[in-house]
Queue: 4 jobs
Job 1
Amino acid sequence: MARLAAASLAGTAIEFYDFFIYGTAAALVLGPLFFPTFSPLAGTLAAFGTFGVGFIARPLGSVLFGHIGDRRGRRPVLIASLLLTGGATVAVGCVPTYGSIGVAAPLLLLALRFLQGLGLGGEWGGAVLLTAEHAPAGRRGLWASFPQIGPAVGFLLANGVLLALSTTLTDAQFTSWGWRVPFWVAGVLAVAGLWLRHSLTETPQFLDVTEHARVPLVEVAREHWRLVLLTAGAMAAGYAIFYTVSTWSLSYATEHLGVSRTVMLTCIMAAVAVKGITTPFAAMLGDRFGRRPVCLVGAAAAALWMFPMIALLHTAQPLLMFSGFLLALLAFIAMFAVLAAYLPELYEPRVRCTGAAVGYNLGGVLGGALTPMVATAVAGRTSGVPWGVAAYLTAVCLLSLGCFALLPETRPVTVTEPATA
């Protein structure tokens, strides 16, 4: 289990590094470089628009790779998704800017971001099932949480590289070529990930399936559509919180509050680091008290904290901003730490890779794709504290709270006996 968990964590860390490096670049440099004819606000919105395309592609990736995972096994998904995401990320670092090739530049950026999202949509399902379907029932939440640590590690890697570059290069150097370096680093990480995953074995749960679904998506849509919609709604708050902290706040604070790029990256990275460390502990609470209760507490805490978080961000004081981000991410991880065990337990093994991944990634469209754009548009209309952003985030958290309330508990049920909804 330790070897499997380590391979899953490393893989998700690498793939989320690829995904996050784009988000940070979108907040800092992609607007002026690829949309120079737009106003600063419109350029940022356009850059976040290409960022959102990755989330739109993720459910499509979960359908494509979920079909492979349910028909051919979980292991092929892990290899193919890593190759696709890594290749697309390296290519982003090679795209000429608008000044060199005109409108073809943002179009190429859009296409490569779509491929990034397609690969990541397959990664999550394969990685969590690798650990969840090997893990003993009483510790499934703990072991399955290791892929959920991967996003924090990937984020820290991505922003650590950007932070190092932003502190050692001049603004002109960073804008000219420095922002491309983290994308090229993705190629090295992808090779390392493939080496870690090449010897993984197929999960016993998949090998025990005697009759595989012919078209898993059709079966999921016909028999589990309500479950998919509820899980998508439940995921939305976590995505909205994370990308508000990691992406929108970086853009807002540097452009509107005059906070330096280095200070903001440091505050965000410190909060994400604590979130990553606490992930397995939150997952253990899910093993002890149940998946659903822990998720309900996290969603309720998040709904109560959005207004204070935005107020603390607007102070532009590093310690206060860090405190706001940290408590928001702790509420987030209370929901997301148990999901790698919770979502697979909701589906039978023959459609599990498709069902769990589609619900998870549809939540990304609701919470991750829209939030930076909505927050940027709302904050751009006011010179004071952007309370409209807080109201939007609170509404998303209440939506997720309601969806979690309608989902069944699965902790007492073994992974081979799915709950129904």
Note: The chain has a mean pLDDT of 85.
Job 2
Amino acid sequence: MASLSMSADERAAIEAFRRDAIEASIDKLVLVRFTADWCGPCKQLGPLIDKLVSEAGPRVAQVVVDVDRQPLIASQFRVQSVPTVYAMVGGQPVDGFVGAKTEREIKGFIEKLVATLPPEEGEDNLDAIVEAANALLAAGETDQAAQAFAALAREAPERADVIAGLARALIARGDLDGAEAALGTLADDSKDQSLIQARAALDLARAAAPAGELAELESRIAADPADHEARLALANALFAAGKQDLAAEQLLGSIAIDRDWNEGAARAQLLKFIDAVGFGDPWSIGIRRRLSSILFA
């Protein structure tokens, strides 16, 4: 890219670009934004990209090139109009767009490219530790799982799966306030499935009847299978205790007797169970099939 006829300022600009864009993109995503002072759409696009790059974390960076002050770089990229944005990964341009975009469009553009980056050093080990912590939780080792997830949360507080795992472990220990505090460290509007499941599990745990009332609820149902309130309360308590199958049986029984009771409350609660477990989980798939067979019988 360099030439003997370049001025000292041009050489400095080229070297800075080589360092900040080409070399930096070896292990991160670098957005190269071509702009100009006279460009109206550039002034709208710039703050959006500034904001999203800042939010994206250390694996995303930005280099701004003024086409009037750095025409050699612009010509190398064959920039014909501004704003133009190129995404660089591995030292090469891999994608880009021309013109103004919405914040949502730019965010999707960044997220798509970040997903293609190779794992950072130590990231594979972190994933393995998360998997081990989930295994502890699944095995009922709630104290150990909570300790493992708490350590992970200190190391990777931005990871939704880590925070969700910590919340689920604390719920299993009965520390509902701790679980709520953990979930509060991430945005409430996050669409991450693990966070949705953890929040659903917390809502269900708060609604669950105390363990001492289980025998009374079971007696009420034995005396009157159509006692839907008792079935609902018992299902919540059973689910909070990790007895998903028994909890679902109570709600499916209620739906089979009267699917419209309390505006479909049993069905709505069963769907909350499915949300908490995960829509694609084999257990959820099986329960959805059984629900459909009742509703469409």
Note: The mean pLDDT is 88.
Job 3
Amino acid sequence: MYYVIRKFAGIVASKIPGAVHHTVDTCTGTILDTRPTSAMPDGIIYKACGNRRATVCPSCADTYRRDAYHLVRSGLTGGKGTPETVSTHPAVFATFTAPTFGAVHTRHVRTHTCTDRSRCTCRPEPCHARRVVDTCPHGVQQACFARHQPTDQRIGQPLCLDCYDHPHHVIWNHHAGELWRRTKQSMERQLNRIARSRGLPRVRIAHGKAAEYQRRGAVHFHALLRLDGYDPDDPTAVIPPPDGLTITDLHNAIEHAATTTRFTTDSHQQQPTGWPITWGDQLDIRPLSLRADHPVTDTMVAAYLAKYATKGTETTGHASRRLDHDSIQHYANRTGTHTERLIAACWDLGHPHNPGFHGLRRWAHMLGFGGHFFTKARRYSTTFAALRAARVHYRRTQDNGTPYSPHAFDRQPDLDDETTLVIGDLTYAGNGWKTTGDALLANTAAAQAREYTRAGREELAHEQACSSSTPLAA
């Protein structure tokens, strides 16, 4: 039985006096050990919260980000239970965006010369330059000649709040997951039509996908799409696709699916004919490579998806927990800012009298989007559960002095083969720490640990780069 107090923001698992943990021998039923929480510090057990959002818990989000990185990269290079042959499969990195719901302030750079897009200093184009400046019915000029900087708060804000279609915006966010499902089906159907026309066997697409909020509050998807073969005798097997299909066929199938997939929502009181759901015009598809000199590599994509897997609505300027009738008034305003109007649209459209749209109120704090921020196909690579199990296996073998086996992913059933049973009589007490001093110490220690790990990774990368470089001539 292992008790670990993690020094970072976590969940208080129990604070009830007399709550105990019993360690029981599963063979004889003998109680081997009893530990009451009353004898522990603060009379409670601190447990990692496991929140994926970096703004809520940086430590747990960092663990989630690393797991997501290895999950994505193993689907490109193999390992961790995924066959290494996947490194030869055609794969692309695609970005699917939302359509326009009204003109917004943007920062467009025609040609980037910077090396880090997150700190881009390139000169952007004028926001909305027009030869003839028109005004909308609300008297707002539909032009902007400013060259916005990355920190400009106007980026993502509509030129005219009253002209912007906020209801359609949140409805699209709410149905984005269904649009993705239909799009992927269309990709596979298109590829299989091509395969049949060439006399080739059936294929399928495995994906890893991360959702990201744009500054305007619309969701777009970054997806890694890998072409796999299909074995009818063993549908769970991951095999290479037939030689007759290339990455060009995969690119064309994705482009065809993104431009043709569309549907209309159910009828609503405010929109009896429903809202059209389709992708935007900005579709970016880039081939992947394992070579370091290639513009888009497996490492870059894995780090990119993992980074966005820990983000939420923070980029829009809004961050809150689930809203209800008591808290909605603090965030929603039909005549307020852009984000306030989006939340108000979710609340109004999700009225219980509108069946099929009640989920909008549940996800009003997410601007209508209720899907997962990181998803993957079942046979793309390993799972988060397998990564956590391997980490538990590593800790147990480390504490017992047993050499760690690199085949931990192949021996997951061993983790469930216990000779002792832990019976806990614990109750949930709440989030956070008991005192401000405890929170300050925990967060400081966690920040130092993250910085130490980051510095270590940079040093290892530097040593690897130096060892692989060509020595200078004498």
Note: Residues 436-468 form the longest helix (33 residues).
Job 4
Amino acid sequence: MAPSPTAVPIELTDDERQTLEAWTRRRTSAAALSQRARIVLACATGEGNTAVGRRLGVHRNTVLLWRRRFLEFRLDGLLDEPRPGQPRKITDAKVEEVITKTLETTPKNAPHWSTRSMAAEVGLNQTAVARIWRAFGLQPHRQETWKLSKDPLFVDKVRDVVGLYLNPPERAVVLCVDEKSQIQALDRTAPILPMRPGVPERATHDYKRHGTSSLYAALDLSTGKVIGALHSRHRAIEFKKFLQTIDREVPQHLAVHLVLDNSSTHKTPAIKKWLLAHPRFELHFTPTSSSWMNLVERWFGELTNKKRRRGAHRSVRTLNADIRAWIKDWNDDPKPYVWTKTADQILESITRYCTTTTDSGH
């Protein structure tokens, strides 16, 4: 076996040693550069390649490579060489132009830019525009809706409802109440074709209407159970009947706190008179345009996704029977929704959003 070559000694200047030590300590340094710096520092102590490799956990050939690179090019030899490939063609100015036009302008014949229209506008190809948009998180084709409540008592109502969610009173039940009106009994004009391997379930796009129903629901905050009632109309009369249903369902020794919206059917003289005769009921109104604060809306979403969206009903009677069956199944294994954000967190989030929107010039 041929003898191992003698390792060429490395002598470092003070500046080189400081730079190498800084490269091993800085978190922003690449892992590869940090390792190369440790190899050179170890070689500068007079150790051979094999000993340095054993101590740092690398192959002796790796130590030999970076020892030679450092002796030939000093610190510059430890840096990565430019990789092969075409030089960059899109300048920073061109990237800025794409971003500025995307954010501040719209095309003449469309409500938003597409990759093709922007590419034609700035003189790039479609792929380059898509890459720039992806890098900066721009999606001109998307639009989301938003609405801020103009309720003058918004802060007070948020604190009232959230306080009820996070710290419900003792010897009381908290019910989130709302109505889902105009639920349509829809039937497809042709039978739904079942799913087959490689073919999804298929339904005709057109349908027949067979009437509507209105669902009143009260979601128990602590248990997740739902008190439901179906009516053909949506008036204060039906709401009063639902209050009577709740009164029968909830044990008489418990106070009843209802979280509900500001619908006019909840505030008629007949409703107020009924509430005066039933003092254990207390109403907590969510702010206007803030249905997201009523947890029963989340339950309505479950009902829509799991029962109504792909259902077919030839009559209101079958629709109501389906809904009642779904409520029964839900109550057999209820899942309460847990509110986590405090009123202060909600108000701070809204404040930040308003500040950001105002600062952006909108």
Note: The mean pLDDT is 83.
